[in-house]
């Protein structure tokens, strides 16, 4: 019975059915199922499938956004039920935001949601954030990674300014930096001094895991 429910949970993420996901999550708890197993064997399976379908071109950005939202709805039900040592291990802490002068947030918010779904603790500081605001958040959270988004070519310079500012305050060796946004390229990220570049939410998750595992 539990395996059947896990399969149904996964399918709600793939099909984009938030109400069904929420209802199944509540049903799982009522049946006394382990919420951690519901996440790992149900929701995670579903979001990984969504990622695969997106990567191969069968799904597009709307399906990816909906899948992430479905998973979040179910997580809102399941995570409060995780007690004591059952709590999901936090993979790492990520501060994420859109740089100064840029008000775009759809891509940034999607990456934040996907990171959360994959076990990261995410501090989303919002849009139009200066290097000083990023640095304050990094210090407060004791972050492992900072993600900076820019959707305008005119605000890409702010990503470079952020990297330089992080170095100037002595945090560069303590935090990995990932850049993203439509105009951003791998070569720009490298020139700016970042640790990596992600062109979409799926590659951002892969990059975050690689940066967490990277040697200091």
What is the strand tally?
A: 5
Shape: elongated
Class by SSE composition? alpha/beta
Give the biggest beta sheet: 5 strands, parallel
Q: Output the number of helix runs.
A: 9
Low-confidence stretches: none
CATH superfamily of the largest domain: Cobalamin-binding domain
Terminal CA distance reads 45 Å
CATH fold call of the largest domain:
Rossmann fold
- CATH class bucket of the largest domain: Alpha Beta
- The overall average pLDDT, rounded, is 91
Strand content is 5-15%
How do the strands line up in the largest sheet? 2-1-3-4-5
Descriptive key words:
216 residues, alpha/beta, Rossmann fold, five-stranded parallel β-sheet, 56% helix, 13% strand
Topology:
Layout lengths: L1 H14 L2 H13 L4 H21 L5 H18 L14 E7 L6 H12 L3 E9 L1 H11 L3 E5 L6 H13 L7 E5 L5 H7 L3 E3 L2 H13 L3
Parallel strand pairs: 1-2, 1-3, 3-4, 4-5
Helix pairs in contact: 1-2, 1-3, 1-4, 2-4, 3-4, 4-5, 5-9, 6-7
Would you mind describing this structure in some detail?
This protein has 216 residues and is an alpha/beta fold. The chain has two domains: 2-86, Methionine synthase domain (Methyltransferase, Methionine Synthase (B12-binding Domains), Chain A, domain 1, Orthogonal Bundle); 93-213, 3-Layer(aba) Sandwich (Rossmann fold), CATH 3.40.50. Helix content is 56%, strand content 13%. It has nine helices and five strands; from the N terminus they run ααααβαβαβαβαβα. The protein has helices spanning 2-15, 18-30, 35-55, 61-78, 106-117, 131-141, 156-168, 186-192, 201-213, and strands at 93-99, 121-129, 145-149, 176-180, 196-198. It has a five-stranded parallel β-sheet, with helices on both faces. It is elongated. The chain starts with a helix and ends with a helix. The mean pLDDT is 91.
């Amino acid at each position: 019975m539990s395996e059947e429910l896990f399969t149904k949970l996964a399918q709600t993420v793939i099909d984009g059915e938030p109400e069904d996901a929420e209802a199944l999550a509540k049903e799982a708890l009522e049946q006394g199922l382990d919420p951690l197993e519901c996440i790992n064997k149900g929701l995670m399976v579903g979001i990984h499938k969504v990622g695969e379908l997106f990567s191969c071109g069968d799904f597009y950005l709307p399906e990816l956004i909906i899948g992430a939202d479905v998973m979040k709805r179910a997580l809102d039900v399941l995570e409060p039920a995780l007690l004591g040592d059952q709590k999901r291990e936090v993979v790492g802490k990520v501060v994420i935001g859109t740089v100064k002068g840029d008000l775009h947030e759809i891509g940034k918010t999607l990456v934040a949601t996907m990171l959360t779904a994959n076990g990261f603790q995410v501090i989303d500081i919002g849009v139009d954030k200066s290097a000083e605001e990023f640095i304050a958040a990094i210090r407060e959270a004791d972050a492992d990674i900072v993600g900076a988004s820019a959707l305008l070519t005119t605000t890409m310079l702010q990503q470079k300014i952020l990297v330089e500012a992080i170095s100037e305050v002595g945090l560069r060796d303590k935090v990995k930096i990932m850049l993203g946004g439509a105009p951003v390229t791998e070569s720009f990220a490298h020139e700016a001094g970042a640790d990596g570049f992600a062109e979409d939410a799926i590659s951002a998750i892969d990059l975050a895991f690689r940066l967490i595992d990277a040697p200091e």
